[in-house]
Structures are given as structure tokens and as C-alpha cells.
Specification:
β6 and β7 (204-210) form a beta hairpin. Helix content is 42%, strand content 18%. By secondary structure, it is an alpha/beta fold. The radius of gyration is 19 Å and the shape is globular.
């Protein structure tokens, strides 16, 4: 939801860092690991939580049309059969650019657009950061086992319904990603900072970009 912030990107990064410190310290060390016996510790955790709440609330610009954006599933649930490829490109860029700016680990070798589709279920697209994919794994289900990040952990996924044929949907997505990767958008430039960009499901469907 980085598009809801009304502050400089450097400030957003500071907020993200503070959230991670709270997660690793107050949340994981106390709320998930150790019992609390001191009222001073409880007050300290409560105070830091309130500071984060005020920091986040004060950084958002929230109009009446922005409330839906605070819920990832509502924001990113679309009917792709009702839109053209140009509109789809805009939807993907709006969804993926903040992830690449603020969440994708710089240590990732490969950025993967991971598709999940089961019979009778919606389509799901998430962003993953991977270690280098072994050459013999591209055509196997093990291709993304070296995962260091997935946007699905925070439910930041693109979800859609479609009555179209499976192959038609895959072809549409691959065409769209080819267009994105050939352009000069913020998203394309961020993706090209990594060694490789792929799209896949149970195997890598296509290597969209690879540094020479």
C-alpha cells in the first residue's frame, strides 16, 4: 500500500525499517517467544506500538476513495476478461512497483512473477525473490525453492477471475510482461536491477529478462 503514503520515499523506507525492528524485537522476542513479567516491558511495547500507529496514520493521505486500497484483496481483485492489455499493464505496474521499491530484498538474484491457478479457483499472481535458479530446475516444480521473499506472505497478491481458456490467459500475461520489460517505466527499471526476471507456475514459463 505504498501508493497511499503522502511522504518522501526515503521516509517510507524509514517507516518500513521501524516496522521490521518492531517485528523482530517487541513482536517476535516477546509476543511469540518470551513471557512478560514486567509492567515496564508491557508499557514499553505499548508505547512503541502507539508510536508506530501514529507514524503510519500521519504518513497516509486517505480520501474516501482510498479506503479500499488499505485491503490488498479488494484493491487487487479484478476481472481480467473485461479489460484490455493496456489496462492490465497499468494494474500490474500499480501493484508491483511498490513491492519492488520497498519489499524486494536486494540480495535476490531472480525476481519471479509466480502464477497459481487451481481448477475452480481464482488466478493468483505474487512476486517472489529467489536465489539463482539451478540450470536443471527451470522445468521442474523445484524452480522457486530458493525463495528469499514472497509478497504472498503479506497477502499482497493480484487476484482475478476469468472464463478464458488457460492457454489464452498465460499468453496474455506473457505478452503483457514482455511489453513491461521492454519499456522504461519505474517498474521495468527496478526489475532490470536484478540478474533475472521470470514468470512461472509449476515450472518457469518464460525468462523475461537476464543480464548478459
Amino acid at each position: 500500500n505504498a501508493d497511499l503514503f503522502e511522504v518522501h520515499p526515503a521516509t517510507i523506507q524509514i517507516i518500513i525499517d521501524k516496522l521490521y525492528r518492531f517485528k523482530n524485537g517487541e513482536r517476535n522476542d516477546h509476543l511469540h517467544k518470551c513471557n512478560l513479567y514486567s509492567s515496564q516491558e508491557i508499557d514499553n511495547i505499548r508505547e512503541k506500538a502507539m508510536q508506530l500507529y501514529c507514524l503510519l496514520l500521519g504518513s497516509f493521505k486517505i480520501s474516501s476513495g482510498d479506503y479500499a486500497k488499505l485491503i490488498a484483496y479488494d484493491t487487487h481483485e479484478v476481472l481480467l476478461e473485461t479489460i484490455n492489455e493496456e489496462e492490465l499493464i497499468e494494474i500490474i505496474m500499480e501493484w508491483a512497483t511498490p513491492i519492488m521499491m520497498f519489499d524486494m530484498p536486494k540480495k535476490s538474484h531472480t525476481v519471479a512473477f509466480k502464477i497459481t491457478k487451481f481448477d475452480g479457483m481464482d488466478w493468483n499472481l505474487c512476486l517472489q525473490g529467489l536465489d539463482k535458479i539451478p540450470e536443471d530446475k527451470y522445468k521442474t516444480y523445484e524452480w522457486n525453492q530458493g525463495m528469499v521473499y514472497s509478497s504472498s506472505v503479506t497477502k499482497n497478491v493480484l487476484i482475478w477471475k476469468s472464463a478464458g481458456e488457460l492457454k489464452e490467459e498465460y499468453d496474455k500475461l506473457i505478452r503483457v510482461f514482455r511489453i513491461i520489460m521492454s519499456g522504461e517505466s519505474k517498474l521495468a527499471n527496478l526489475l532490470r536491477e536484478y540478474q533475472e526476471v521470470v514468470i512461472g507456475d509449476l515450472q518457469v514459463k518464460e525468462v523475461l529478462f537476464r543480464k548478459s
